[in-house]
Design goal:
The protein is built from five helices and no strands. The chain is mainly α and 69 residues long.
Amino acid sequence: MDDADRAILAFESEHFQHPGTKERLIRERFGLSATRYYQQLNRLLDDPAALAENPALVHRLLRLRRRSG
């Protein structure tokens, strides 16, 4: 897991109250489209290193992914 992966996990820990804010910040902070960002995030959720880095966040996001999938 590199610094970019850690930054994505940290970003997912933030809370966004206004629609569109998260997508705008994804482009500003990471230079990625929202689609590409979520592809990378989903890859991270399957990475044991991400689970070791932030188990509570990864488990929460996995639960959300299972519900929507």
